[in-house]
Each structure stands twice: as C-alpha cells, then as structure tokens.
Here is the input.
Amino acid sequence: MTIIGYARVSTVEQTIDLQRDALTAAGATTLYEDKASGKTADRPELLHCLKALREGDTLVVWRLDRLGRNLQDLIRIVGELDERGVKLKSVNESIDTAGPTGKLVFHMFAALAEFERGLIRERTLAGLEAARARGRHGGRPPALDAKQRKAALAMMKNRDMSVAEISRQFGVSRSTLYNIAAKST
Here is the structure.
C-alpha cells in the first residue's frame, strides 16, 4: 500500500512547494506534478500518476480542485479510483475515501452534479421551446437568400456552368448547392 501524491499549479509563475510539502507531510513517497491550467485536459503527469496507482494505494492531493478540471471530471476520476480499489485523500478538505464519511461526501457530490446537469438540460429545453414559440429557430442562417437559391438552382439545371463554378460565384461550398437542390425536389 503506497501513498502517491499529485500536485498541480496553473501557471509557470506559481510555485508547487506548498503542495509538495503538504503531500510529503501526508505520507506521499512518490509525487507527480503538473504545471497546467485546470481547464486543460492535457495533464500528462496526472495520467502517469493514475497509471501508477494499484489496488490498496492512496492518492493524496492538496485540494480537490487540483485533481479535477470540474466537478464532473473529479467525480469521474474518483469513481475510477474507487473501482480500482484506490483511496483518495484531500489534505485541505480533510476528505478520505477510505472511510464511510469520505465516500458519502463523494456520493453527495455526484448527486449534486447529476442534479445540476438535469437543471441545465431543463433550462436549455425550455429556452429552445420559448424561442420556437416566438418563431425563432436555432442554427446558422441560410447561406443564400431565396432569390440567390432560385438563381443557383436555375444555373445548376441549365448546366452551362459546373457546380464548382456556381459555388465560387455565390461564395458557398458545393455541398451547400447540392443540399439546396435536394431540398427543392
């Protein structure tokens, strides 16, 4: 049973010393350190750290926000660790998933995250419904107006110009012209 530490700072100007000291004091014998924004998924040392962990090991972090990019990412990582039999300890939040209280906290996080996703989905659907009721539809506006579409269709039927030439003349892609033709039949 090994205690492995993971530390992350967001910018090159920040120092990792505080986290390193806290993780060492918590018993970490091996440390993995990233200098990357929490928003980026590219955290190579975290990947190495997660691969190094074995059943019975403990991953210790200074704070939970050092581990996950957001709540969903954190819950995903903790869930994967739990499935592998790896415990998580957060020094600042005093959370330890080795005990039932720590596991309860993460189940509460997961429930709150799922609730938040449901609320966001409901609000999005309600907003789309309200916009449709006002006659607005999402998506990009048409590349060509009705008059331009009619002219392009006539040119395509006439066959004096190739579809590529017509697309250059109107400043649209050939697939746009083919889509207009398909919708007109």
